[in-house]
Automatic annotation (TrEMBL):
PANTHER family in the cross-refs: FAD-DEPENDENT OXIDOREDUCTASE (PTHR43031), RHODANESE-RELATED SULFURTRANSFERASES (PTHR43031:SF18)
Membrane-traversing stretches: 6-24
InterPro entries to which the protein is assigned, alphabetical: GlpE_sulfurtransferase, Rhodanese-like_dom, Rhodanese-like_dom_sf
Residue ranges constituting the Rhodanese domain according to the UniProt record: 44-132
Keywords (A to Z) from UniProt: Membrane, Transmembrane, Transmembrane helix
A Pfam cross-reference name: Rhodanese
Domain of life from the UniProt record: Bacteria
Identification of the protein by name: Rhodanese-like domain-containing protein
Length: 133
């Protein structure tokens, strides 16, 4: 077997694994939360708990105004401070961590979960950003 066939097999395998990963994330999101647009997110965020599941340094650098930091790595220890009687709006940089966070919260009994489509990466609303000296 030539080197080109081996390279093609590796590339096809990587693409297949990435496609499988994306499929798993989408299924997890559909089962656990509803994905909403920026407009829907902004319209409902005053009546919801807005949580940022990125790591604390990313949150401190820039986050949606009014959001609370709940890093995914700490969520298992801190989720109990979230109320089950109010909607929870979740965001991260794009969507993968939000899907995992929503899935974990769903398993803990939270039902009113929403994920920001596009995450912080595509957010155009008000933000709080650390000033660079």
């Amino acid at each position: 077997m030539s080197i080109w066939w081996k390279i093609n097999i590796v590339l096809i395998s990587v693409i297949a694994l990435y496609a499988l990963y994306e499929l798993v994330v989408r299924i997890m999101m559909r089962r656990s939360a509803k994905t909403i647009s920026q407009e829907e997110f902004q319209a409902g965020m005053r009546k919801a708990q807005v949580i940022d599941v990125r790591e604390r340094d990313e949150f401190n650098a820039k986050h949606i105004l009014g959001a609370r930091s709940f890093p995914y790595s700490m969520l298992k220890e801190t989720f109990s401070s979230l109320r089950k009687d109010q909607p929870i709006y979740i965001y991260d940089q794009n969507k993968a961590v939000s899907a995992r966070a929503a899935n974990m919260l769903r398993k803990k009994g939270y039902t009113d979960l929403f994920i920001l489509k596009g995450g912080m990466q595509e957010w155009t609303g008000k933000i709080k950003q650390k000033k660079i000296d």
